Each structure stands twice: as C-alpha cells, then as structure tokens.
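[job 0412] stage=complex_fold ligand=2-phosphoglycolic acid status=START
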Amino acid sequence: MSRPYLVAGNWKMNGTLEGNTRLLQGILVGLERCPDVEILVCPPAVYLESTGASLKRSRAVLGAQNLCEQDKPGAFTGEIHGHMLKELGCRYVIVGHSERRTLYGETDDIVARKFRAAQICGLTPIFCVGETLQEREMHQTESVLGRQLGAVLKLCGIHSLAQAVLAYEPVWAIGTGRTATPEQAQKAHAFLRAQVAARDARIAAALRVLYGGSVKMDNASALFSQPDVDGGLIGGASLKADEFLGICGAAQAQMKAV
Ligand code: PGA
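[job 0412] stage=complex_fold status=DONE, emitting structure tokens
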C-alpha cells in the first residue's frame, strides 16, 4: 500500500512575526518542486493565525504543537482546547513529544487523553513515541515503544490509529545532531507497525510512521528510503527554508523512486 509522505516542521518555541513571514515565503516558493509530498507547518500557538493566513493559498497545511487534554473548554488557565485550534485552521496536532513528556511531566496517560481530545475535535494527532539513550542501551527500546503505544490503544482503541500519524522520535537524537541510522529507524518503525498489525493489518498498512530526530537535507534520503519510514518530523532544520525544502525534496524523490 502506498502511503503519501508527510514532512512536518515543528518550530518549537521559535520565531517572530517578521521572521516567520520570511521563512514561510522561502518555503512556499519551493513547494511546487515536491507536489506529491504533504507539507505541514507547526508554529507556536500565538503564530497559528498569522501562519495560517500565509499558507492560505498554498498546499501546505497548518498544525499545532500541543493541546489541552480536557474534554470541554473552561477554567484551565493557559491551556488551549482542540476546538480553538480547529477554528484557526489546524488539521494536525503533535501529542506526546518527548520535550512535553520530560520537561512538562506529560505521562502516557495524559498523552493518551490529548490524543483522544484531538480526535474528538477533528484534529489528526501526530503521536510521538521514543526511547531515551539509557533505555536504548539497556535494550528497552521495544518495551518503551510498546508501553507508549499501548496507552493510546487502551484509551482510544485500535481504530483510532486510522485517523492518526505515528512519529518515532528517539530522545537521544532530538536536537543533538545525532541521528538514528536508517537501519535503527527502520527497525523501530517496523516494530511499531507490527504492533498495530497484530491488532489490525489494514490500519497498520495505511498508517504513516514519521521519523524525527536531527533529520537534515543530507540524511533525509537515506531515512526516507526505508520501507517503513513515511516522512519526517523536523525540528531545527524546519527553521531554514532551504533545509526544509531539501528534506521535502528528498521525500518527493523517494516517491518517484517507488
Ligand atoms: P530536531 O527535532 O529535528 O531538531 O532533532 C525533532 C523533533 O523534536 O521533532
């Protein structure tokens, strides 16, 4: 089954109104070179509206980096409900990013609730899983991935993955310049897909699994050429138009190759 590549830029807590305009202009002029790749931009929440306006007549889509796990809007100071993100034109939202798990105390349970909250609002969650270096060295990668995935499966069921994207993001590769080798990425992606396939083979075959962690123009082709890597979640390199477009181009070239 062919799965269209998705390249998602996670800007994290970076940007200014002026800088974003320049970055988006740079990205938009190059998009025609990768017509078959789905391109997603996830700016900080305060820039969603202006970014959405810049993307309006383009193919690129808008996503958020986080949402509140609560079912209903209300007295939750500082939080953002999925309906609000939807109203601003978001299609996707990242949940379970390791920075949220480690720096902001998001447990597997909170992540699962965020996943559910996103889907209730019609947003597609980009559900991130990944092991730390210590866990990898202790040969716990698969048990960690299984546990993180299991929390969402328990709360939302296997069918929820028909409307979701999975992202394998080894914590030791995020923002470190240290990338998983294509073989390491493929092994983890194949494991995740097999976990899903054991419950529903059709959902597993259609599920896009992105790789994230120091993806750059130079290493994107090798990662994207792996059979179970369906695109990337890009942090640092999504802040430079040329780099980001180079990564999108690597995905496009891969589509031609199949
Ligand atoms: P990085 O971040 O590309 O800067 O490593 C990836 C991510 O955190 O999604």
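The chain has one domain: 6-70+78-257.
[job 0412] exit 0
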